Amino acid sequence: MLPDPLARDALPVATIALARHLLGRLVVRVDPDGVRIGRIVETEAYPPGDPALHAYRGMTPRNRALFLPPGHAYVYLCYGTSFMLNVSSEAEGIGAGVLLRALEPLEGIAAMQAARGGRRLRDLARGPGRLAAALAIDRSLDSGDLCARGPLYLAEDAAPRGAIRRTTRIGLTKAAERRLRFVLRASPFASGPAALNR
After folding, report:
1. DSSP result, the chain
2. CB 62 within 8 A of CB 55
3. From CA 43, how far away is CA 33, in angstroms rounded?
4. Rounded CA gap, 19 and 129, in Å?
5. Nearest to 180 by CA among 165, 194, 197
6. For the CA atoms of 127, 129, 130, 134, what is the dihedral angle to 10 degrees?
7. Pair 185, 192: CB distance under 8 Å
8. Chain Cα centroid distance, residue 128
9. Which of 19, 79, 104, 149 would bridge with 189, disulfide CB 3.0–4.6 Å?
10. What is the pLDDT along the chain (198 residues), one digit of tens a residue?
């Protein structure tokens, strides 16, 4: 049985709070290849006014999903090679989001490995581009409601969440020094330097 979606009214309507809240929750992907589920172990916040935020200069056809109510998917193509999955995070009309950076694979691992060229378990969804590839996420899922059953949604997990570490962000040229990255401490599935994740 598939887990129930997260209730939108249970989500914090604030980007940094949502980045913390999503840790330990599940991403559920349902497609013709079956069901793939992973536990979120790493997020990055992109709050209003952040120069690294795609909505920093206002709404465009490409980034409009960031202006939807909390809990909608914003999917974009990075450098023409990798899709990235974000969750809208502020009140409707305010552009901001949380990037999902890494998952611990739980279900549908064979399908994830097929999508990722047979990579080892630890590396299947360790990093935002790998995460999207493992779950077969592309622009067709942009603007989707992640708080409703569908091809892609967020769900609760009964497992204990564990301790959270807050660090600087990774791989940015703007505002990289801001401590807006959150990770489940010592998770082997998180991306980035191990020293940042302890």
Report:
1. -PPPBPPGGGS-SSHHHHHHHTTT-EEEEEETTEEEEEEEEEEEEE-TT-TTSTTTT---TTTGGGGSSSSBEEEEEETTTEEEEEEE-SSTTS--EEEEEEEEEEE-HHHHHHHTTS--GGGSSBSHHHHHHHTT--GGGTT-BTTSSSSEEEE---S----EEEE--SS-SSSTTS--EEEETT-TT--S-HHHH-
2. no
3. 26
4. 18
5. 165
6. 130
7. no
8. 7
9. 104
10. 899 999 999 999 999 999 999 999 999 999 988 999 999 999 999 999 888 888 888 889 899 999 999 999 999 998 778 999 999 999 999 999 999 999 999 999 999 999 998 889 999 999 999 999 999 999 999 999 999 999 999 999 988 888 999 999 887 767 777 889 999 998 999 998 776 666
Per the document, the length of the chain is 198
**Domain residue limits, the chain:** 8-197
* Assigned superfamily of 8-197: Methylpurine-DNA glycosylase (MPG) (3.10.300.10)
Q: Tell me what pLDDT residue 141 has.
A: 98
